[in-house]
Amino acid sequence: MFTETMHRSAIHPLGCVQEEIGVVMPYTRSSGGLHAHRSGHEVATRQEVARRIARIKGYRLADELPQAAWPAQTYLIPNDTLVGLPEARSLGVHSAEDFFGGVVPHAFVATKAISHPLYSPDAVAPTGWSPDFYPMVAKAVLPGYTAFSREDAALAAERLLPLGGLRIKPVVASGGRGQTVVHDRTAFNAVLAVMDNDELREYGVVLEHDLAEVETLSVGQVRVAGIVASYFGRQLLTPDNRGALVYGGSDLMVVRGGFDVLLATLPSGAVRSAVEHALVYDMAVKACFPGFFASRTNYDVVHGMNAVGQRCAGVLEQSWRMGGASPAEITALEAFHADKGLKSLRASCFEKFGSHKTLPEYSVVYFQGDDPEVGLLTKYATLDLDGYSSKLQAPAWR
Question: Distance from the CA of 357 to the CA of which of 16, 52, 127, 197 falls in 20 to 30 A?
């Protein structure tokens, strides 16, 4: 069922056949899946993103339909990263102009697993693992290892635990959920014992130095209908309905254009360094994993204090799908679409748990309600056309 009237081929009064109007449509991967992203608030957010992208492209909006009913020009908003060129091509996704997200050659490439090396050259590795990736990103990521077997995870832990707290990160979890920090082998063994064998074998587990005084910066780029927007921004944390600190939104400083345009606005310092880390990671992915392409890229770069009091920074993970920052990204794209002369802006999005009836003026609401998985939640975005220069150096990393 179409949520807005859609015309296929229409007859013009003069007798000419008009070109079919394309549609923008949410798409849910039915097989496999990395993170799922099928909760109520994520489905509603994806629908609102689809509606707004349809406006930008001049397309119609459609509810999700069986593929046999898709029009020839169907732009997809997938719930997850697409895996493999065959899957992408079967969906009509041949380039970044066909969807909002990314395509990877193997499922593990879309996870934080690629951010670290294996314990040894003969460690268990999935098909498609690139030994060339880590040497290219070594100075842009934190110390750590990725393991695809219990034995390799145990060996990696033996090497890392003497250096301080060890963060264990299931690679299919998102938003910081499911992570555990351990300080000795007994605690590590307890966590290792309850890991799912199939998940460990297919996706792996990340073992990484734990940091204190942490701040996380997002660096990303989106492209829709010929508009390219690049940004850096601070991630926000908020207590969820159970009191745990989780992702609470993003405050983005956005420029019209590519990463080169973004870098040109940044003086030397921690923010510029974080953007450069993300670009090293981005270029290494393109070099080491043929078949990768994306219209939406987002890299989380962390800065904090390690166990011996040293400041360090590195890319934690990547996102090549509609993500938490996407309401802010879409708000920026809408502004650039509406004003062709606009060069920079500040766009923010927020996720607030509990009951929030009063929102800032001109907020764009993406979800407000009681989600079966997370409870009461409000997701909204705001725009500030004058806020870019005043926030150029945020966050103030020491």
Answer: 52
Q: Is residue 382 a part of any domain in this protein?
A: yes
What contacts 187, CB < 8 A, 6 or more positions away? Answer: none
- In the β-sheet with 180-182, what is the strand arrangement from edge to edge? 144-147, 205-209, 166-170, 180-182
Tell whether 135 is covered by a domain: yes
- Contact of 253 with 391, CB cutoff 8 Å: yes
pLDDT above 70: residue 193:
yes
What is the structure's pLDDT at 11? 38
If you write DSSP's letter for every residue of 149-212 in order, what string do you get?
A: SHHHHHHHHHHHGGGS-EEEEETT--TTTT-EEESSHHHHHHHHHTS-HHHHHHH-EEEEE--E
Contact 132, 288 (CB under 8 A): yes
| 179 HSE (CA, 13 A, CB side) | 21
* CB-side neighbour CA atoms (13 Å) of 36: 6
Strand order through the sheet with 227-239: 311-319, 296-305, 212-224, 227-239, 245-256, 344-353, 375-384, 364-371
pLDDT tens, 24-72?
999 997 655 455 566 788 899 999 999 999 999 999 999 998 999 998 8
Q: Are residues 369 and 270 in the same domain?
A: yes
Instruction: Give the residue among 345, 346, 367 at the shortest CA–CA distance from 356.
Output: 367
CA terminus-to-terminus distance, the chain: 53
**376, part of any domain:** yes
- Tell me which of 149 and 215 has the higher pLDDT: 149
- Mean pLDDT for 148-169 is 94
Q: Which residues pair with 305 in a beta bridge?
A: 212, 311
Burial class (CB in 10 A: 0-12, 13-18, 19+), 262: buried
Asked if 194 contacts 55 with a C-beta cutoff of 8 angstroms, the reply is no
Give the domain CATH number at 201. 3.30.1490.20
* CB contact at 8 A, 256 and 336: yes
For residues 71 and 102, membership in a common domain is answered with: yes
Q: What is the mean pLDDT of residues 297-323?
A: 92
pTM summary value: 0.88
